[in-house]
Amino acid sequence: MKKNENNGFEEKMAKLEEIVAKLEDERTPIEESLSLFEEGVAISKGLQEKLEEIKRKIEVLRKDAAGKLRLEKFEEEAGE
After folding, report:
1. CA angle in degrees (0–180, nearest 5) for 36-39-45
2. How many CB atoms lie within 10 A of CB 35?
3. Where are the domains positioned within the chain?
4. Nearest-CA neighbor of 36 among 77, 49, 66, 27?
5. How many angstroms separate the CA atoms of 58 and 74, rounded?
6. pLDDT digits over 32-46, tens only?
7. Model's pTM, two decimal places?
8. Per-residue pLDDT tens over the stretch 49-71
9. In a 10 Å sphere around its CB, with 0-12 CB exposed, 13-18 middle and 19+ buried, how is residue 60 labelled?
10. 63 pairs with which residues across the strands?
11. Cα(7)–Cα(39) distance, integer angstroms
12. CA gap 80, 61 in Å, rounded
């Protein structure tokens, strides 16, 4: 990820954390909570898409039976 993309990701995570804190605050009016929830869902979806994009780009080196290194696409462990 490029530095500016990383900054954007971090900023979105911080905004999402801010939204969660406001939603947890019992003093937040219901109308504002609904708006914050919708914004949080949109941010979360964008972050999830970015993470999926990153996973697709990851390649790992693994040794085959002969001990030679080869590149393989990243695959998640079962249950993740």
Report:
1. 140
2. 13
3. 3-73
4. 27
5. 5
6. 999 999 999 999 999
7. 0.66
8. 999 888 777 766 676 777 777 77
9. exposed
10. 69
11. 19
12. 21
